[in-house]
Amino acid sequence: MEVERPKDAGEFLERAGEFLLAREAVHNLALGLCSRLRTHPRLYGEEPYFAVAVVGDDVVAATMRTPPHNLILTAVDDPAALEPLAEAAAAAFGSLPGVGGPREPVGRFAEIWAANTGAKAEISMRLRIYEAEETRPPEGVPGRMRPYEDRDRALVIAWMDAFVDEAMSEPPPETSQEWLERRLDDPDSGILIWEVDGDPVSMGGHGGSTPNGARIGPIYTPPELRRRGYASALTAELTQMLLDRGRRFCFLFTDLANPTSNSIYQQIGYRPVADVDQWSFS
Question: 189-215, pLDDT tens digit by residue?
Fold first, then answer.
């Protein structure tokens, strides 16, 4: 078992791309980040980190990180890779805010990290990855989808603040305004608004393009406007728009603590692919 350290996203994809693409939905976050890092290597201000565990010529696992975010762990084909990958991350950073990845291997990685560093490891969020190759739009939902416009800026920032407060276990390392600027600067990303009689009632985003897919999210509807089908209709139309543009499939993450979202996405054509956990270290 050896751990290689690609210097950038291009080298990382050259070495581990085939491994990642074999489970594109599971690795949609890593692949989406790499597509952006190839043109903006310091996307979040610091150099990204990559590590690939290999046995002979075969890749069996990998990690990557865009500081100050959590470490990302891929699927793991050989559990023996977890210890050296943890050691490599410790050598590079000393400490980590957390790690995310497929449930079983990321749980073991968290145990190893806690034992090696003395950090306290706790699950901060349980998520499920969904994938759709076709959509089933809900019927009878009023309104229409339209692109983001400059006049939506204050509303979208306020809604993103509300989304973070409600849906994320820990505050992200960037403000909602910084998130919006980054999305607007990315040609592969977008923000869409669902409006009824000219009034915005829901918002949805997409980004993180992979070789064959795109990631949907966030999706947010204010509490007083929920249970009217707006989020379902927006997600279905947004997904279909990306499929019509040539994406083979779309991905999204749901919080397993929210049974409503896990239900409505399946009703519009999404199917569960894998469960992933986020761990925090303190």
Answer: 999 999 999 999 999 999 999 999 999
Sort residue 6 into left (φ over 0), alpha (ψ -120 to 50) or beta: beta
- pLDDT tens digit sequence for 222-266: 999 999 999 999 999 999 999 999 999 999 999 999 998 899 999
Considering only CA atoms, give the Rg of the chain. Answer: 19
How many Cα atoms are found within 13 Å in the side-chain-facing hemisphere of 220? 19
Tell me the pairing of strands 2-4 and 49-55.
antiparallel
Is the distance from CB of 76 to CB of 102 less than 8 angstroms? yes
Joined tokens for residue 76: 């793991």
Stated length of the chain: 282
- Peptide bond preceding 218: is omega within 30 degrees of 0, i.e. cis? yes
Residue type, 249: F
